[in-house]
Amino acid sequence: MTADGPEAKITAWLASQKEAMLAELAEMVNTDGGSYDKAGVDRTGQQVKRFLDSHGIATEVLPQQKHGDCIRGIVDGGHALGTGNQRSNIVLMGHRDTVFPKGEPERRPFRIENGIATGPGVADMKAGIVMNMFVLAAFRKFGGAPGPLVGLFTGDEEIGSPEGRPVIEAEAKNARVVFNSEPGRASGNVVKARKGGVFSVVDIEGKAAHSGGNFEAGISAIGEAAHKIVAIHALTDLKRGITLNVGLIQGGQSVNTTAPNCQFQIDLRYVEPADRDEIMGKIHDIVARAYVPGTRAVLTVKGEFLPLNPTPASDRVFAVYQKAAADSGLKVEGEFTGGCADSGFTAALGVPTLCAVGPVGGKAHSPEEYLEVESFVPRAQAMARAILRLEQTGL
């Protein structure tokens, strides 16, 4: 690395941008942005676009019907997509939506105390979004990227990316490598592997009857749900990394009425792609079976994530990133997590993918969510260095 080379210039500029990063983060955290709040998520998209436009970065808005629009920023030629089977783009990815209800930023606005930033979505993953914005700006300013850079900013990851997934998969077809800037783990590590997940709803129909005066005429949907839930939970196989959890249930009419309906929701997590079809097949069988005669049930898949499994190519990307992080003053290892993310969609299409490269934080989805402010700059520098050294991976 020379004193006047791109790496020195980019990392020095990023070091000078800490306060600007925090200002952008404060604005984004203080903007409502739950997954179902399209207007709020779109406002954060407008913030991203405004920033990229101000740095001369070509942008496009990919409108979505129900959820936040996707924003795409391109450095080194907006027309520079892969041609044929060639994969050329280096993709920096992230989601702008959060899990919090409308009004949460007013109740818990962005704040920094003793080097810790708090606020809804501060780590998961608005800090990663801001980091990606500044890394793109640095390469637009100083050049040096070994290929076109694409920043993809989606708006519905927290509910399984029902509209974002096709956009992500289309981008992956032209991707050489993907860095997904979910929050760095509390340990400071990045994520090399994640579980896949399927989120389903079971609706059960029974028959109402007075539970005292006409008990025999009733058919309990809640009783049927109880049998099905026990059977579904029994599919858990911890040795294989397969877990089943019914986390929500509702039903019934009154305490003295046999329940005419019941609904429950299933969270399935798995590691190996083949396990998904096996377990979903067993769930379908359980749902189709009437443990309580006369009940009927329907299973609906509401959302899904694919697993992120390491490959020799992604291992080479991690090795380069690990050295880049060390040169940025960070000690980084790779972790496995049971959580799901959009990175599984790109990995499933054969794109070397590294996840959780964003600033370090923890306790996501809770009022205690936090971000380590001092991780902002070095994590941005680590990503920039890894991009500059991408040729070392042989990809």
From TrEMBL:
Domain Peptidase M20 dimerisation: 193-294
Pfam families registered for this protein in UniProt: M20_dimer, Peptidase_M20
The entry's keywords: Hydrolase, Metal-binding
Gene Ontology MF annotations: hydrolase activity; metal ion binding
Active site: 97, 157 (proton acceptor)
Gene3D superfamilies registered for this protein in UniProt: 3.30.70.360, Zn peptidases
Designated name of the protein: M20 family metallopeptidase
Annotated organism of origin: Neoroseomonas eburnea
Organismal lineage: Bacteria, Pseudomonadati, Pseudomonadota, Alphaproteobacteria, Acetobacterales
